[in-house]
Amino acid sequence: LMDRRSSLSGNKIKIGNLTIGEDLLVIAGQCTIDPKNPNYFYETAHAVKEAGANSIRGGVWKPRTNPYSFQGDNKSLDILMEAHRRTGLPVDAEVMDEHQLHLAIEAGVHMLQVGARNALNYSLLRAIGGAVASRPSTVVLLKRSIHMGPLNEFISAAEYIAAFGNPNILLCPRGTSPAIDGYRNHPDESITPLLKEKTWAPVVVDPSHSVGKAAYVPACALAAVAYGADGLCIESHISPSKGIGDDPKQALTPEMLAYTIREARQLWAA
Ligand code: PEP
Ligand code: MN
C-alpha cells in the first residue's frame, strides 16, 4: 500500500460546482431508477435538488440478492442523464462490470459507484482505475465491502483505482455484516476519523444501507457528520412506496431529506 496521504492531502476534488471540503457533499436520489416510470426519477431529481442535495444518485444496474428480482435496464442510463440535463447536477451510478463501466463513461456519468459487493473485485477496480486515469473529472465512489475486514483492506481497494493515476476517490462506509438486529447492517460511520487519519480520500457515508429503514437514516447521517464525514449518500424518492429496489423501505421523502440536509449542514459548519 502506497502512502499517498502526504502527497495527496491537498488534492481538491470537484464534483459539479462543489469542491469537497468547502461544503458538505450530499448525493441523493433513488436506489433504483424505474425505467417504466421515468417521471418519478425526474421528480425525485428536482425534489432532492430543492432539498439541498448537490449530486444525484440513481441505480441503473442493480446487484440484487434474488436473481429473479429486477436487475436494472440500460434505458435507465438515458433517464439518469436526462435528470442531469434537467437539474444541472452531476450524477452517480453503480457499475458492476466492464461493459456497464464503458456505457456509463460514454454517457458522461460524473461519479462511478463501486458497490459493496464489488469492493474487493480487484479486476473491476483495475478496469475502473484504467478507465478514469485520463479523466480526472470523473470521481469514483467506493463503497466499503459488506464483509470488510481491516481498514487497510478498504484503503488498498482505493489504491487499486488510484494507482492508475486518478486519485479522485470517495470512501463510502455503508454498514457491515452481521447487522445489528433491526438494522440492515452494522452502521460503521464511526470509522470516518480513522479513514481520514490514514488516507488522502474524503469520506462519504451512506446511512441508508447502514440502517436500512428510513426512520433511522437521519440520525445515522448526523452521526456521520459528527464523526467528520465530508459527504453523505442518501436514498430518497418523491414517493417511496412507489419505488422499486430499496426505496419503499429505505428512501427518505423529500421533506425528511430536506430536514436531514439542513441539520447536517449546520453540524458540518459548526
Ligand atoms: C446502492 O447504493 O443502491 C447499493 C446497492 O449499495 P451497496 O453496494 O452499498 O449495497
Ligand atoms: Mn440501494
From TrEMBL:
Protein known as: 3-deoxy-D-arabino-heptulosonate 7-phosphate synthase
Residues of the full protein shown: 72 to 341 of 357
Keywords: Transferase
Annotated coiled-coil segments of the chain: none
Domain DAHP synthetase I/KDSA, chain residue ranges per copy: 17-256
Domain of life of the source: Bacteria
GO MF, any single term: transferase activity
